[in-house]
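Please decode residue identities from the backbone states below.
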């Protein structure tokens, strides 16, 4: 592993910000530290950077223990949430700053800065000041400045937080492409699950100072290991009495279940193609229909349970108050060991349908 944390603990007074944190990151990967506010993700990032010191545990970068190595000697580039650009310096001078601190020869500085300006797509803006740039352009300058001294590791603290929602998607794709093009191991902090899924090769989910799960975006989404991850990732609702749904029964030691919209299929009652599925489907009444762009979101009352489902705009329209047939394919159930997937027993061995 290129970056490795072993049994890291960190206190702020009586508050435990990091609780026995351990994980490893492979060289060249772009990794998201994902969690809600106060989950400990920024503390982890700052300890890797050397801006905070763990109370116990070990931090390794490229196989070297760095606990006692100052931040300036760790070979790390840091991109702050607020960009932290120097207001009275041009784009060129902001990017050159770290190289000048290292007393790099002027010719090399000019070559490196021009190379980075072209790389991040800011050619022709060398003489502009930060207040003459858009939020996305300022973020690109901050990224180039962090890369200028050729660090071994890049850390980014909520890199898209100060960007207008309109340009976030474009900047996410740009950042991912740049990092993979440069080939630098990178870790970024975010509380936005869509951001983590869109950008990261690997996600580390944090909660209350602990690491809940680490894996690819697909692994985290499809196979949550803890109740927290199941609830935090994706859109879902928790139910206690899930056993009233056809194909399911309440099990001992199960503390509840989550049902995601994609686990629910909704049929119009007059659909002639669903006869073979009617005995597996529950009756429901549509309480709300919300337009979501390429789909509509339905809130349906099924035996007192409020289920959410998504329905394509290409399918026949469903109205508020309409009686429908509802089929739940699977759910996530919580027990003392973690999370397990329970499939609808009535559908075992049958092909699922989207009608």
């Amino acid at each position: 592993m290129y970056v490795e944390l072993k049994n890291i603990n960190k206190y702020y007074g009586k508050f435990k910000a990091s609780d026995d944190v351990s994980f490893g990151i492979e060289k060249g990967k772009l990794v998201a530290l994902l969690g809600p506010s106060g989950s400990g993700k920024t503390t982890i990032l700052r300890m890797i950077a050397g801006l905070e010191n763990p109370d116990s545990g070990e931090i390794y970068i490229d196989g070297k223990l760095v606990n006692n190595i100052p931040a300036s000697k760790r070979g790390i580039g840091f991109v702050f949430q607020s960009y932290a650009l120097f207001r009275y310096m041009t784009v060129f001078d902001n990017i050159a700053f770290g190289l000048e601190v290292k007393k790099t020869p002027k010719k090399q500085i000019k070559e490196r800065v021009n190379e980075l300006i072209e790389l991040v797509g800011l050619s022709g803006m060398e003489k502009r000041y930060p207040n003459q740039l858009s939020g996305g352009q300022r973020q690109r300058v901050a990224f180039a400045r962090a890369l200028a001294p050729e660090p071994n590791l890049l850390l980014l603290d909520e890199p898209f937080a100060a960007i207008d929602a309109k340009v976030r998607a474009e900047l996410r794709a740009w950042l991912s492409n740049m990092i993979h093009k440069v080939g630098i191991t990178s870790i970024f902090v975010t509380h936005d699950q869509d951001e983590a899924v869109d950008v990261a090769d690997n996600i580390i989910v944090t909660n209350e100072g602990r690491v809940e799960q680490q894996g690819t975006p697909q692994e985290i989404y499809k196979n949550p290991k803890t109740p927290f991850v199941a609830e935090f990732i994706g859109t879902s609702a928790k139910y206690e009495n899930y056993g009233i749904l056809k194909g399911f029964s309440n099990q001992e030691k199960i503390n509840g279940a989550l049902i995601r919209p994609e686990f629910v299929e909704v049929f119009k009652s007059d659909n002639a193609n669903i006869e073979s599925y009617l005995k597996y489907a529950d009756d429901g009444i549509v309480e709300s229909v919300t337009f979501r762009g390429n789909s509509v979101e339905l809130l349906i009352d099924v035996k007192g349970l409020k289920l959410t489902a998504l329905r394509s705009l290409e399918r026949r329209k469903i109205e508020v108050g309409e009686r429908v047939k509802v089929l739940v394919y699977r759910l996530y159930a919580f027990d003392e060991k973690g999370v397990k997937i329970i499939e609808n027993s009535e559908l075992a061995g049958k092909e699922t349908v989207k009608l």
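Observation: The mean pLDDT is 88.
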